[in-house]
Every structure is written in structure tokens, then in C-alpha cells.
């Protein structure tokens, strides 16, 4: 009997790997030895050769509720059948309003308004645009400069790479947005290597902002954007007092503060958002990933009522913000997000990382004596193990660890020579032991 058409065409597709240009991937190397996931459930992926792989990274920092969770699957299936799409502009559908209200209620006031996007990159560009348009709306149109941070990752849109500070993501793409400055990052291994949780030293890195303000004058600066915990660059935990000081300086000089919570949002640190964890309230917050637990692409930007109100003060028949996406507040994404929030609530997942953080920290730091480990960093259910790069061959050692981990049944992520870990929030203590046990074997085996 011949295979069903869909199975046959999927087979045909995997026989030819050429057409798909994979993102952030060494395509030629991958296509010689492909790694394929064909299904996922809870904490595990299944590979095309039938092996189980423990997910140590929540996919790409996104599957916070674990994989293929029943409430999310059901919500998506029902929504596709009921209302597949509604125009995003000048039309609404109930789930968009329900979701926005629910999200606003989760976020501390005055971050009471939500603008929907389809990804972290879009959330970042949206937040930067809202910041610029807001300054103009309140008569501060000279405030056009944006400030990011070295080693920051804010997605891959032109706004995001402009304020971002990862050299490889910037250097190929021309001059990007003009009028952007960068503060230094806060990673200070001489003083803070192997810190557990927040490093004691380094709040003074926030004074970089003062230096930039003095150089340009506050009247030219619209907004500052930082990840509360820098993730994709290899997990940099903010020093104690640093975020508070940034907030203070921004407030003093009429500059908007944007937290990019694409990774830290939705329970990663043991509270719904980093805003709660650090007790620092920015003016705008970007999110994505955990919003739908990665099931359907979606992002959301939160802004304060002051910002929202500044746009609502014009004539009522006018469009207030000339910005949006065909798929903003897509009904299927809204349904996935609502199903995800139900799962988080039912299972207490948004605070679960707080209960596991100590166990996670001890397990992670137990790897300190493994070969080539030069730093370990952690907060909530996020962690990094930094390896000493091989001279002349940066990234090779960590990438070997990644490949060996995959063979040994754990999914880790690497950036440079740093191993980053951020498991789904449903991980058990036994699975934490398994993750670090296998990682120890990997680190002891690779060169
Ligand atoms: N901001 C941050 C802090 C991120 O970590 C990421 C993705 N890792 C993004 C933005 C971009 O998100 P996306 O890949 O969904 O565009």
C-alpha cells in the first residue's frame, strides 16, 4: 500500500534539504548531518531516529508551559475551526480584548495597555516606534535618540539590531538606524565570576547613561532599552542596584525606559515578569515567546497609561498610531495565548521557577569543577556555563558540547562559548538532575 499523500510529500521534502535556508544556522554543516525533531510532549522532543531529548532550553526560550499541552492544543484547534482570521485594522474579535485585559491585569500598573505583534523582533521595533511617537506627541519631538547596550539582543529588525549590541548581528547590515548609543554591558568576570544570582558589584555601569546624556543633552534622547537579564548573549544577570539606577536616571531626564522581556516574561525568573522580580517599573515592556509558550508566533508590547493616553487625546475619528501588522492579535494566536495563560495559572507555573531556583542554582554550580568552565551564572530558571574558548577556534568547544548533548539526549543552546539553559517551567527536580548529570558527562568528554 502506498503512503498517504501528506506523508509521501513530507518524506520527499526531507530527502532534499537544499531549498530551506535555515536561520542562524551553519547550513552547509547542518545539511551534512541534520538534526530533526518530529514530535514533542511535555519536557521532551522526539528525534527523527526515535530518541527522546530532554528540553533544557524550552525550545528557544519560549515553550515555558512545556510541549503540546492539552489546553493550548484544544484552544488552537477550536479557534481555527471557529474564526480563522479577522482583519487586524478597524475590526475586532472578542479574544483579542479578553487577552489584552488579562495581560494588563497580570502586569503592575501603570503598564495597563497592550499592543500585539507576532514576534520579539516586532515587539522591539513597535516599542521603539511608540517611544519616538510618544515623545513627539507630548511636544518633545527633539527626543529622537535611542540607547541600547553592548551585547544586547533585541531581535533582528533594523530597530532591534541598531539598539542591540551583538557584533555579528550588526556588522553585515550597513549603518542601521542613526542616533543610537550603547552603554557598556554589565558582565564583569574579574569581580563577579561564579556569582550565584545577582552579582554584588557593578551597579555603577548604569552611570554610562549619565555620560551619554551629558554628551548629547537629555532633550535629544527618547528611550533606553535593556533586557533585564540579557539572554541570547549568554545570560548576563544585572548587578544589584543596576536596574533601579537606570530607572532613576531615566525618570530624572524624561527618558522612557523599555524592558525587553521577550525571555524574562512569563515566569522565567519565578514571577510573571522581570518587572515584578526586580521591582522596577519601566514605561514599556516587550514580550513574545512565553506568551503563547511558543505554540503560535505572537508578541505583546505593554505601555503605561500615560503613554496610551497621549495618543488618545487627538480627534476621536483619527488613527492614533500609524503602525500594526496584518496578523496583530491574530485569533489563533490569541486563543493559544489564552490557553497558555490557563495552563500557567492552573499549574502555578508563573511562580514555579521561584520554588526551583535554589535547586537549579546548586545543580548548575556543581559543574564548576568540570574541565574548561570559567564562569557560571544563574537566576530563576535560567543559567549559563561559560567555557574557555580554544585558542584561534572560538565557539568550537561549546558547539561540540551542543552536538554531544544532543547525542546524549539533552537539548542545550550555545552562543559563542557559552552554554545557555532555560528549561520549560514544568521541569521536575529529577529532570534537573538528569540535565546537569548529562551535561557533566558532556563537559568531561569534549576536548
Ligand atoms: N528580544 C529578546 C530579548 C530576545 O531574546 C529575542 C529572541 N531571542 C528577541 C527580542 C527576538 O525575538 P524573535 O526571535 O521572536 O523575533
Automatic annotation (TrEMBL):
Q: May I ask which residue range the UniProt record assigns to the signal sequence?
A: none
Q: Which InterPro entries match?
A: Aminotrans_3, Aminotrans_3_PPA_site, PyrdxlP-dep_Trfase, PyrdxlP-dep_Trfase_major, PyrdxlP-dep_Trfase_small
Is Transferase one of the keywords?
yes
Record keywords: Aminotransferase, Pyridoxal phosphate, Transferase
Instruction: Note the coiled coil stretches, chain numbering.
Output: none
Q: Which Pfam families match?
A: Aminotran_3 (PF00202)
Required cofactor names: pyridoxal 5'-phosphate
| Superkingdom field | Bacteria
PANTHER family, A to Z: ADENOSYLMETHIONINE-8-AMINO-7-OXONONANOATE AMINOTRANSFERASE, BETA-ALANINE--PYRUVATE AMINOTRANSFERASE
Family assignment?
Answer: Belongs to the class-III pyridoxal-phosphate-dependent aminotransferase family.
Q: What name does UniProt use for this protein?
A: Beta-alanine--pyruvate transaminase
Query: Lineage of the native species?
Result: Bacteria, Pseudomonadati, Pseudomonadota, Alphaproteobacteria, Hyphomicrobiales
Amino acid at each position: 500500500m502506498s503512503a498517504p499523500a501528506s506523508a509521501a510529500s513530507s518524506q520527499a521534502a526531507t530527502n532534499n534539504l537544499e531549498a530551506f535556508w535555515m536561520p542562524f544556522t551553519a547550513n552547509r554543516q547542518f545539511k551534512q548531518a541534520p538534526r530533526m525533531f518530529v514530535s514533542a510532549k511535555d519536557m521532551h522532543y522526539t528525534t527523527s531516529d526515535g530518541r527522546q531529548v530532554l528540553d533544557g532550553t524550552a525550545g528557544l526560550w519560549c515553550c515555558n508551559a512545556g510541549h503540546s499541552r492539552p489546553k493550548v492544543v484544544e484552544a488552537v484547534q477550536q479557534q481555527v475551526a471557529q474564526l480563522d482570521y479577522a482583519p487586524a485594522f478597524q475590526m475586532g474579535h472578542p479574544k483579542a480584548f479578553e487577552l489584552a485585559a488579562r495581560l494588563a491585569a497580570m502586569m503592575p500598573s501603570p503598564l495597563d495597555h497592550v499592543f500585539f505583534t507576532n514576534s520579539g523582533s516586532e515587539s522591539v521595533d513597535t516599542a521603539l516606534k511608540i517611544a519616538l511617537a510618544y515623545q513627539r506627541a507630548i511636544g518633545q519631538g527633539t527626543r529622537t535618540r535611542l540607547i541600547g547596550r553592548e551585547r544586547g539582543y533585541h531581535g533582528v529588525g533594523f530597530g532591534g539590531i541598531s539598539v542591540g549590541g551583538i557584533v555579528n548581528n550588526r556588522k553585515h547590515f550597513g549603518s542601521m538606524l542613526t542616533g543610537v548609543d550603547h552603554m557598556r554591558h554589565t558582565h564583569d568576570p574579574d569581580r563577579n565570576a561564579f556569582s550565584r544570582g545577582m552579582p554584588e558589584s557593578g551597579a555603577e555601569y548604569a552611570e554610562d547613561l549619565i555620560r551619554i546624556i551629558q554628551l548629547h543633552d537629555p532633550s535629544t534622547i527618547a528611550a533606553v532599552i535593556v533586557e533585564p537579564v540579557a539572554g541570547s548573549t549568554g545570560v548576563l544577570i544585572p548587578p544589584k542596584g543596576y536596574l533601579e539606577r537606570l530607572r532613576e536616571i531615566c525618570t530624572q531626564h524624561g527618558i522612557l525606559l523599555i524592558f525587553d522581556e521577550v525571555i524574562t516574561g512569563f515566569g522565567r525568573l519565578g514571577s510573571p515578569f522581570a518587572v515584578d522580580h526586580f521591582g522596577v517599573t519601566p514605561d514599556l515592556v516587550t514580550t513574545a515567546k512565553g506568551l503563547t509558550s511558543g505554540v503560535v508566533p505572537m508578541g505583546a508590547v505593554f505601555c503605561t497609561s500615560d503613554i496610551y493616553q497621549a495618543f488618545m487625546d487627538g480627534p476621536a475619528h483619527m488613527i492614533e498610531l500609524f503602525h500594526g501588522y496584518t496578523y496583530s492579535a491574530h485569533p489563533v494566536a490569541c486563543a493559544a495565548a489564552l490557553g497558555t495563560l490557563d495552563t500557567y495559572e492552573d499549574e502555578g507555573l508563573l511562580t514555579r521557577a521561584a520554588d526551583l531556583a535554589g535547586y537549579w542554582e546548586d545543580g548548575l554550580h556543581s559543574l564548576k569543577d568540570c574541565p574548561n568552565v570559567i564562569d557560571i551564572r544563574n537566576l530563576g530558571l535560567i543559567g549559563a556555563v561559560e567555557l574557555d574558548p580554544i585558542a584561534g577556534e572560538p565557539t568550537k568547544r561549546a558547539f561540540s558540547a551542543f552536538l554531544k548533548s544532543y547525542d546524549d539526549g539533552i537539548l542545550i543552546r550555545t552562543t559563542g562559548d557559552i552554554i545557555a539553559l532555560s528549561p520549560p517551567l514544568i521541569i521536575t527536580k529529577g529532570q534537573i538532575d538528569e540535565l546537569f548529570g548529562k551535561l557533566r558527562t558532556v563537559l568531561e568528554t569534549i576536548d
